[in-house]
């Protein structure tokens, strides 16, 4: 896939969006065998040597104390940086038996949060390293597996099995499992049936529905193929099978060169590979951005969408998203714009708090979306989808866990807000920013019901994503989007240096026409002054 062109454009308060446009093509799909392309060519990114690294703590590892795993994680990351200094993605497994989960931050999950933001032991003291120069890291962590029960009568709801430590880490990208594998070809099991239907949660995958809303992040953020399980006709026995699993290379090449591979470890491995591919394709992307791009590329399967659209209750949808996250990611969607789908990417640094005149919130960032009004008027009632993803890394409070208060665990938080219907820009800025109110708070604007999850879903965690769907004309005169800070322990610490720290974030906005025949790509590209490439016919 060849990058046709890129451009940086200043919008709002001189904050850049990076406008991506490239030809979109569909690759050939291999159902259950993922082949790693090892061909080298001058124009091909070499993600194998530079970016991807793999770390797994197996269930039989003798690590009875979580602090030991913290040390192991730190030493591993340090060692990998020495041998692979460009590495930017890690796939972390887990050890069974350490049942920290949900709103409770363990020493292991906090260590991952610290390593992600560049404040791991060995990263340098505060006075030695500038915040902007700290090495950030992306961890791709599996959500954990349900018990491999063989007695079908004892199968319990997957919601009874919370996601395992350290997948509650706020800065990690947690991957659960879904499945499309429903056809059984194993000899002797022809009359057995798949437990999960196409496009639903894999029977192996854990969820976070039991976690308290408001103090725990949405996990998993993504689901990827993790295999299925089968049940016998009498519905008394269940088992994993080769035809319901993926394939990987075996440890004994002569005896079994290819072996079945399933559950959330398989899903996380695919997620880590995708992160490495994106980083290799876009070396200028920060780890925060790679995570945002992956989540933004995700789409809910038809089965997931049917479940989400079966209710208008935002609270009911929260529980659903805590099962299958924001959907299934796609590398092709992550790196491409199409005629009916345009992606805008911003990377920026923000100072959430300021110490001058007392400890207070500092600035909001505003973005003007390059959506031509005449295009929206022309589309009128044509339905469009606007998706927004905000990704940043928090610094965990070393002395407190998030079950006390999310704002006491996080160093800071960020939120996005969008101009509401018939809301002037000045009133919007006053609503989201106390510094612009002149002592008067504007009347509350009614919440926009067209968001899939709504603003109450954004309460904890360091990644926030939502989808707005409605008539194109409803976006008219609503081209302003804001990134604003919320409270965290940076604001209240005694040190002024800590209060004045800065944080990076990645913001991604896409606009997509639900009708694939509608071209929104050309009007948006024209509005920001980019040339339209003409197709060139090459005689054969």
From TrEMBL:
GO terms, biological process: proteolysis
InterPro entries: Peptidase_S8/S53_dom (IPR000209), Peptidase_S8/S53_dom_sf (IPR036852)
One example GO MF annotation: serine-type endopeptidase activity
Chain ranges of the Peptidase S8/S53 domain: 105-327
Name listed for the protein in its UniProt record: S8 family serine peptidase
Organism expressing this protein natively: Bradyrhizobium barranii subsp. barranii
